[in-house]
Amino acid sequence: MEFFLDTADVDEIREIAQWGILDGVTTNPSLIKKSGRDFKTVVSEIANICAGPISAEVTSMNTEGMVKEALALKNELPENVIIKVPCTPEGLAATKQLSERGISTNVTLIFSASQALLAAKAGATYVSPFIGRIDDTGADGLQLIAEIMTTWEQYPSIKTKVLAASIRHPTHVLSCMQLGAHTVTMPTKIFRQLISHPLTDKGIKAFLKDWEEVEKAGHA
User: Fold this and answer.
1) How many folded domains does the chain comprise?
2) Residue 24: its H or E element
3) In this predicted model, what pLDDT tens digit does every residue of 171-212 receive, in sequence order?
4) For residues 83 and 105, is the Cβ–Cβ distance under 8 A?
5) Which contiguous run of DSSP H or E holds residue 110?
6) Is 84 one of the annotated active-site residues of the chain?
7) Are strands 24-26 and 2-6 parallel, antiparallel or unpaired?
8) How far is it, in rounded angstroms, from Cα 100 to Cα 73?
9) pTM tops 0.70
10) Could you tell me the CATH number of the domain that includes residue 98?
11) Cα(160)–Cα(29) distance, rounded to whole angstroms?
12) Range of the domain at 21
């Protein structure tokens, strides 16, 4: 499974990248706005920290505008930047045109298996189902991951990766692993929760205490 970080905070990306397990980064206009910095500057910095796919989202709502933006971004930003496109009819058309040009895409705001399949047919590199937002409505976001993965099993020719997004807690990550999702993207907080466990902390404390006693005995 690929582990992506969902943020535009460069310091957070540097922190997680140092762990040696970061496969990519997803951004969106809201995250860029939160950073308070220039879009292209931030994405370029991120792409230079993490060698994996860096999703940069277009903001045009028509196909021509999306393709124009995407080509400009690919021309101006590092090679590992991929284009994030909304799952709309215009977005699918843009995805098709970009895929024919060999440009990788991440089709976002997926809320049904049919949307995911249509995006895959258009040539999307990734599809991003938003499981946390589905949970917010009272439905089960993980059920969508299960439906998409079942659909993918029926059509082995599909090469599009399922990128679970809107991750709210570590259990989401574990469940996505078990369902076979190819990728998850999550906030820094979730990365920290994944690596943390009270028994690990307790064990380290006990080992260090025992080692301290061993050293004392050695110097006695």
Assistant:
1) 1
2) strand 24-26
3) 999 999 999 999 999 999 999 999 998 899 899 888 888 888
4) yes
5) strand 105-110
6) yes
7) parallel
8) 17
9) yes
10) 3.20.20.70
11) 24
12) 2-218
